[in-house]
Design goal:
Uridine Diphospho-n-acetylenolpyruvylglucosamine Reductase, domain 3; 2 domains; 8-stranded antiparallel β-sheet; 5-stranded antiparallel β-sheet; 32% helix; 23% strand; binds flavin-adenine dinucleotide
């Protein structure tokens, strides 16, 4: 997006001059330290003989006995079968929740990645479970194919993305796991199971989104789409005008999402539509610089909300700020160099507009959040633990800087999401346990039963999963 930090700061500096004299408020705001108490930078220091791991956001940290990198299905099966303690598979560590954390054995599937088979006629492709999404889309592109949708970034592994129901956006587009045709996984006792809808319909629907709790996935066979080119259009406009048109606007585009810039009354809408136009020459945007501009506006003018809003509104460009044409994989996912912490809930689609209005008001009231809020639409699917199971959903995500407080996500935003019938993103912050989840998912108890059958001794459990499943860790 072409709004630079310099752009915003020129305005903020001007405002600072205008505001001189109301110094007492600005002084106390400027003295405020937004750094979260207990914030730690870098991975934990491991005692001798232990390994060190942390997730992308740095809020899940562990010093496991071992980080294992099996390079074959046989080696993986033996590692899992013979493990004395608990075992957790991990992908790129991009989940914000404690799904993968363990002090025992962490298993990474970098050695089981890449394209394993491709059917020229159907476009079906089998990949190792540890393949990162960017590699999947590149391998498919080389064969004239593509994923039908992608999330905001493409660093996640296939297994990690599917395990948490990772999604992109688009009224008619389901989450990524809906493209699974078959999968193979290693069970707690070291067996390799091959699963399709025909071989075992229950295990198929339970396994597509399974939080790494049924076993360690080794490969996935996926549907792919013929390669397609997209045109991206980014527009900045007044949030009140836009919200009146939200449902029709989302319906009008293949992929549609919007971001709200807290305390500005402005949104950036982003649409992607299929096109035959030639790819744009210009590449890359300055989103990171823009974020730092929003942070500085918060830091310098957060004490004077009307002034902060006025400066943002006078400095932000309006209308179409970016148009680009490229292959789908180049546009649907971008990079996020600035780290953050996130909560995302998926509401029934028709509750989306009213819920997002509430969340936007709360963001404005709090004042301290500068990260944009994201709103997306996802089509339904059939996986038991998919938040999109059975009906279309609208997703709302709030973010805080990686080193700042986020405790208010649970007190301010989560109750609003829950009241609207929201289901949490499995890989993003939430506080729910078995009692709440059972009410949100018709097949939750069936999943728990199946999990107990496959892993009666809880080899794949950790504290986070034990809470989700209502289990005790020493069972
Ligand atoms: C910057 C950023 C942007 C993001 N954007 C989006 C987005 O646009 N849409 C969205 O929906 N989410 C998004 N996410 C969330 C992310 O897609 C999910 O958290 C995803 O699970 C991360 O994949 P991973 O490979 O890092 O898996 P991890 O976080 O490492 O693991 C996730 C789960 O997968 C399990 N797992 C990993 N490998 C295996 C295996 N081989 N077998 C069985 N289980 C396994 C783990 O045990 C764990 O339960 C984003 C996260 C970040 C940090």
């Amino acid at each position: 997006m072409k709004i630079t930090r310099r752009h915003l700061m020129t305005g903020a500096a001007g405002a600072g001059i205008i505001a001189a004299g109301v110094g007492i408020h600005s002084f106390s705001w400027n003295q405020r330290d937004f750094t979260r108490r207990g914030y730690l930078e870098g991975a934990p220091e491991a005692p001798p003989g232990k390994a060190s791991w942390m997730n992308w956001a740095g809020i899940e940290r562990a010093t496991p006995d071992e980080i294992s990198f099996p390079d074959s299905v046989e080696a993986l099966a033996e590692k899992v079968r013979s493990a004395k303690g608990r075992v957790r598979p991990v992908g790129s560590g991009h989940s914000f929740t404690g799904l993968a954390t363990t002090d025992d054995t962490l298993i990474m599937l970098n050695g089981l990645s890449g394209l394993q088979a491709f059917d020229e006629v159907t476009g079906e492709a089998r990949f190792g479970a540890g393949t990162p999404l960017f590699q999947v889309s590149k391998d498919l592109a080389m064969r004239g194919r593509a994923l039908d949708n992608q999330p905001d970034i493409d660093s996640q592994t296939l297994a990690g993305a599917f395990a948490t129901a990772t999604h992109g956006t688009g009224n008619q587009l389901p989450a990524l796991h809906d493209n699974i045709i078959a999968f193979e996984f290693v069970t707690a006792d070291g067996r390799l199971l091959q699963v399709t809808r025909d071989s075992d319909a229950d295990l198929f629907e339970a396994g597509k989104v399974s939080l790494g709790a049924l076993g360690v996935m080794t490969s996935f066979t996926l549907r792919s789409a013929p390669a397609y080119r997209l045109k991206r259009t980014v527009t900045v406009e007044d949030s009140r005008d836009f919200l009146e048109r939200l449902p029709e606007t989302a319906e009008a585009h293949r992929n549609f999402e919007f971001y709200y810039f807290p305390c500005t009354g402005l949104v950036a809408t982003i649409s992607h539509d299929v096109t035959d136009e030639a790819p744009s020459e210009e590449t890359g945007t300055d989103d990171d610089d823009f974020l730092m501009g929003l942070k500085q506006l918060r830091d310098q003018l957060g004490w004077a909300p009307p002034l902060r809003k006025m400066i943002a509104r006078s400095e932000f460009p309006r209308g179409v700020v970016e148009q680009r044409v490229d292959e789908s994989r180049m546009l649907l996912s971008t990079v996020r160099p600035t780290r953050f912490i996130e909560m995302e809930y998926h509401m029934p689609r028709d509750r989306g507009p009213e819920t997002v209005r509430r969340i936007m008001r709360l963001l404005d009231d709090r004042g301290e959040i500068f990260f944009p809020m994201e709103y997306r639409h996802i089509a339904p699917d059939t996986a038991w633990l998919s938040p999109f199971n059975a009906a279309p959903r609208a997703s709302i995500a709030v973010h805080a800087a990686v080193n700042e407080a986020y405790d208010y996500f649970f007190t301010d935003f989560e109750p609003v999401f829950l009241k609207a019938g929201g289901r949490p993103h499995w890989g993003k912050l939430h506080s729910l346990g078995r009692a709440e989840l059972t009410k949100l998912y018709p097949d939750y108890e069936r999943f728990l039963e199946l999990r107990r059958e496959l892993d009666p001794r809880g080899k794949f459990l950790n504290a986070h999963l034990a809470k989700l499943f209502g289990e005790t860790l020493d069972a």
